[in-house]
Amino acid sequence: MPTHRATTTRSRPTAEPAHRADVKRRSFLGLLVAAPVLVTAAEIGRQTLVDSVPDASAVALPSAPQPAELYDLLDVIRDSARPTANLITVKVNKDGTVSFALPRSDNGQGIITSTQMIIAEEMNLDPDQVVVTLADARPELVFNQLTGGSSTTFSTYTPIRVAAALAQGRLLGAAANELDQDVSVLTSRQGLITGPNGRSLPFGDLTAKAAAPVTEAANVVLKQREKFTVIGKNRTKSDALAMVTGKKKFTTDLRIPDALPTVICRAPDLNGFPRSVGNLDAVRAMPGVTDVVKVGSGVAVRAKTYGQAIDAVDALEVRWAAGTVPGADDESVLRKLRAAELPLAVPKGVGTTLESDTVFYFRSNSSLETNCAIADVRANSATIWGPAKSPIAAQNDIARKLGIPQNAVTFHVMEGGGSFGRKLFYDAALEAAEVSKAMGKPVKLMWTRADDSRQGRVHPMATTRVRANVVGDAVASFEIRHTSVATETNPGLSEAITASAQKAPGGNLTVSESIWETTQVTPYNVGVSTRFLSEVDMRFNTSSMRNIYSPDVATARELMVDRIAAQMGKDPYEFRSEFTKLERWKKVVDRAAKEADWGKSMADGTAQGIGMHVEYKGVACAVVELDCRPETVNRQIRQARTGPRVTKVTYVVDVGLVINPRGVRAQMMGGINDALAMTLTSSLHLTDGHFVEASWDNYFYTRQWNTPPEMNIIVVEDSDAPEPGGVGEFGIAATCGAIACAYVRATGKTPTYFPLDHKDPLPFTPYPTSPPVPPSPTNGLETTF
Amino acid sequence: MPNHTFRLNGEPVNVDVEDDVRLLWVIRDLLGVTGPKYGCGINVCKACTSHINGKAFNPCSVPVGAIKPTDEVTTIEGLAATEAGGGLHPMQQAWIDNDVAQCGYCQPGQIMAAVAKVRQCRAEGREVDDAAIEELRNICRCGTYNRIREAIKAGAEKM
Ligand code: FES
Ligand code: FES
Question: Which of A5, A11, A454, A777 has its CA 20 to 30 A from that of A273?
Fold first, then answer.
């Protein structure tokens, strides 16, 4: 195999002016929709700006572009929407506001705010003048109503602009008529169109006149990026006030007539189900209880309060059938994974062979709001309220379960209290529909925390093996084999993906293979570079947890990159800067090193670590400082994990065009705190067919005492990329890699599993699995402060 | 069925329910005040944090029978009214200024805990610094901790 020395990378001019110029000239097709007021529409998935892949920098042993560099998950989700009709619409109301129903789910990502900004920009409004709501399930949108893979802004940015620009143009035209002036002399500001004589007309007065009598297609040119005044500026979330005053309503906060609190009694085993109940009548007679029925996943109790429903759940005597993984534990799952591992193909012995093998244990993606939904099922119809990222699939499944037509199910999409991939599914909505039907009454179903933690969906356990052959100052090969408990993709996502997957180079892949192929990039020039996934379906409840495979793969990959650098006698940063494939990526690595003062002197037992990651049309680089000194690691905090502490994170991210920099920074911060959890403190332990962790005093997500005291998040504002990339999941993988590398540099020990504390003695006594819900304490007045 | 009277957000309330039902459910399910959230039910996540007679507490872990008629319970909905002059409580304003909330689910509890922590530090003559903030046990699964820190320090200055 030929090898070369790595040449020094040269700066190359970027192609930026070219595609920005293109954008200016291009016109886009939208629709004027026949309606009494002005309604414009555009197709999601139809319009995209140029999206070229920049040239590789000149480094020896370049690796061929990998599928994800050319065509990534965002393209898959966007392209799956292409055949869908023109159904996203902007409407100008008679009160002068502009409204838009966003066919996506907001679980805190801030996409309502960024959508307001995009429309405001094109129509010269204040974002407050734009009313964005979440659309109910609309089957005609097919794949367009899916929130996942950080795709929202990427797939909706241009179509929303097209519809908004069309509306602005029509309003100007109508005003020109009214004012008897030429359009070119009119200005539009904050919903008021003003002529040279100072006379002005509000949007509200113009909308009927601007309305289209018949539906027709129309061309429109978008505002030039240089003229943006809203996009790219910091903007506080539109519901910030509602959130700090307790007014924001989540699903279980709704008062739907007669929808009483409902809780399901679940099995000790993962996915166990009830055979029979011994004391139904006694439990039905308990205080507050109105109904008790056996359903597929357990025994449902409806009561006046959740407290009484939970007490009844704990009082039930149920005979359970075994679950889907009876008797299984971490070791038995690992053995199955080992048996499914694919071989590494490049033989050892070409130069120096470096190998690693890392285990990643199960982790929970439970959000703070547990799974929940309200269902009111009648004879021939059903109404559901709940957070859902794929409401059409939910509507479809619920209809099938109830045996009624899909259009007889109304699904109101609620804002969720966090998602992290879990709300791609709608487990609670399906159950609520089933329970409401069985009881013949509306129900407000909520999973208890213990159920959400023990029976809820998880990030699957996996192993990642890496083999690299290093010859002198070059890397001849770099192979990754990721073997994982199967990740369940929800129907909405899988339909969207299989509809487009054949477009990815390589085509005809299964859903998980498609996600793998379209998300995984090894961002370095490392010769022959392969990345393969094998999955084993062991009947766990899994889902695409925030950032799917990348946190684990990036951890293993970045650890190996540090080893390669060491083998070559290079500094970890210098190596990354020199071997990264693209100039745009190198810029981010260099900036992170500079901002973090890479290489500064650090006390014994502490170290910096660096990690980079490429995904979602963007690139990120993290530099962390990790303190592994005994006085830090052994800090005592009750009911907590301490351990090594990340004391500082510098995070540089280029996500393309930035709509709301504050929103992007917020997403990065959340991702960074997730990365701490993923690598250091948070995992589920599987014992005897169930997960041990039942609550937040068992499952140690990052807390104030873990979070980095210093965090410096830098969002690149002059990106070469013309479109917004995905931001929702992009804080995690690079940080995971950096933390792992810092740990090795601080301690000299290379971990073989993550999170680092997974095999430490449990700092808690597990709650029993039966009764299923730990009882609420009664001493709350003793812990006031 | 036992009858319970106490003060909730400045108003007297009266409710018929068994003594052992935890106050969180009385407030949320029977009285319809939904600012305090359920995140664990066992005094761990702190999403339900509210105030009793001005001190932070977790109503998921207090039976309603333990509440006295004179007890003043304040949830996030009543926080602003505890400040003279109307408008938002300075801590709520600091939360908005720092755009702290992500999904917002944990934030009522975070704000109520922060206000109590500042008062506690003041009473004990301590700084509201990182060490004091790290005593807060409220979980934010969206990972907004660093903005929470900034907001608490800013809010404390105005309290
Ligand atoms: S719900 Fe009260 S502390 Fe978690
Ligand atoms: S903002 Fe979502 S849990 Fe804190």
Answer: A777
Name A305's Cβ contacts closer than 8 Å, sequence gap at least 6: A261, A288, B17, B21, B25, B26, B29, B30
Of A2-11, A16-25, A593-602, minimum mean pLDDT range: A2-11
Residues A226 and A305 grouped into a single domain: no
Residue B147 has pLDDT above 60, yes or no: yes
Q: A81 and A222 share a domain?
A: yes
pLDDT for res A724: 83
pLDDT digits (tens, 9 = 90+) for A310-351: 999 999 999 999 999 999 999 999 999 999 998 888 777 768
DSSP letters spanning A398-453: HHHHHTS-GGGEEEEEPPPS--TTGGGS-HHHHHHHHHHHHHTS-EEEE--HHHHH
- Tell me which residue in A244, A249, A672 faces B92 most closely, judged by beta carbons: A244
pLDDT value at A501 more than 70: no
Query: Under CATH, what is the fold of the domain B87-158?
Result: DNA polymerase; domain 1 (1.10.150)
Give mean pLDDT, residues A353-381: 96
Q: What percentage of chain A's residues is helix, strand, coil (to nearest 5)?
A: 35, 25, 45
What residue ranges line ligand 1, CB within 6 angstroms? B 38-41, 43-48, 58, 60
List the domain range (segments joined by +) for residue A211.
4-50+59-238
Interhelix angle for B107-124 vs B90-97, to 10°? 120
Q: Read off the CATH number of the domain in which A156 is found.
A: 3.30.365.10
Judged against a pLDDT cut of 90, whether residue A742 lies above it is answered with yes
Residues A602 and A533 in one domain: yes
- The verdict on residue A465 lying in a domain is yes
Kindly state whether residues A226 and A279 are assigned to the same domain.
no
**Among A417, A446, A475, where does a domain finish?**
A446
Asked whether the beta carbons of residue A107 and residue B30 sit closer than 8 angstroms, the reply is no
Q: What is the DSSP string of B82-125?
A: GSTTSS--HHHHHHHHTT--SS-SSHHHHHHHHHHHHHHHHHHT
End-to-end alpha carbon distance in chain B:
42
The three-class DSSP label of residue A609 is strand
- Cβ distance of B25 and A308 shorter than 8 Å: yes
What digits encode the pLDDT tens for the residues B75-100? 999 999 988 777 999 999 999 999 99
* A662 and A699, same domain (yes or no): yes
DSSP 3-state assignment of A581? coil
b (16+ CB within 10 A) / e for A664-685: bbbbbbbbbbbbbbbbbbbbbb
Ligand 2 neighbour B102 (Cβ under 6 A): yes
For the CA of A780, the nearest ligand: 1
Ligand 2: atom nearest CA of B140 is 4
Is A636's pLDDT higher than 60? yes
Domain boundaries, chain B: 3-75, 87-158
Residue A366 with chain B: CB contacts under 8 Å: 141
Q: How many domains does chain A have?
A: 3
Name the residue among B24, B111, B136 with its Cβ closest to that of A704: B136
Residue A245 in any domain: the answer is no
For residue A27, what pLDDT band results from cuts at 50, 70 and 90?
confident
CATH topology of domain B3-75: Ubiquitin-like (UB roll) (3.10.20)
ipTM (interface predicted TM): 0.98
